[in-house]
Amino acid sequence: MPRTESPRRGRRPGDSGTREAILDAARARFSTAGFRDATVRAIAGDAGVDPALVMHYFGSKQALFVAAMEFPLDPAEVVPRLVAPGVDGLGERLVRFLLGVIDELGDANPMLALVRSAVGHPEAARMMREFLGEAILDRVASAIDTDRPRLRADLCASQIVGILVARQILELPELAAADRETLIGVYGRTIQGYLTGPLESS
Amino acid sequence: MPRTESPRRGRRPGDSGTREAILDAARARFSTAGFRDATVRAIAGDAGVDPALVMHYFGSKQALFVAAMEFPLDPAEVVPRLVAPGVDGLGERLVRFLLGVIDELGDANPMLALVRSAVGHPEAARMMREFLGEAILDRVASAIDTDRPRLRADLCASQIVGILVARQILELPELAAADRETLIGVYGRTIQGYLTGPLESS
Questions:
Q1: How many domains is chain B built from?
Q2: What is the ipTM of this complex?
């Protein structure tokens, strides 16, 4: 039925809906193909635009994901900044930053939406695993100069996702009521241990 | 319309479906009222039996919950056994037990179903928070003779739920591939720190 062109096809750079069309295509493609297999070329094709235009608007696939998921922060900016001073004190810096963002965002926290979605749907779990891996965990791992850096980053992620679930979603009472500095101290030591402590089994 | 009695009303102790009717009523009542507010009396009423019969079959509200959720283990038996030797080494015992159960159960793990449900639905989160609190966290807290025992139990829960989500649901690659003894060593130290280490903020 070629009578009318789909509104998603044949957009020119100036079209006011182009950016939104790219974001819609990205959301759909990321959630079905995962982060790694969703190419900028395929997303551009779905949106009816040239891949160069996607890069012009967003700069990278990671940045496109961040925009599509409406993250308030881009890990490509935040993680290098937290990691830059070196691995000493990185545990506390990560936890201080995370708890600050959590408390600031409240219920509008897209990390919570992503965790809810990932826990409920295997495709969303894959998308989160792949994006987390490239955008955050590989970057944290690159700051670690001891053995098994990516396992260490995964261990950190397991405590951080546990904070999100236990404190923000399950709302365990003492954890929800604890003051932020106490949690930064306790969790900061845990994360630091995962980054730089021993991994052998006793 | 009093023409036919509901099949759920007026059961006698010998009825073969009585136990199932109580479990159905318990599942429905726990998921709408939460664990704490779902009384044995109300569940018995929903199932059309005497509360004494519920206690005769299940022994306690906690045990009824465990049966209704089809847990393979009863925390009322497991937790006291893990806690009994004292708080020394409890971190490693808890993690060793948990990872053993996780690996043994595989995809048929009802803990995963409960986490998925709790993360997706506020009523299920409430049910899990209340059951976890009474059946596990208060018992762990009672073994701790330092300051803020229940906060310490909540901290342990945040790492344990993080292991479930990051390793079993997100399947972070290095975490999923790590050998069990390494994880028992690393997470055992974390849990032990939460149980007996300092809580002050640096």
A1: 2
A2: 0.88
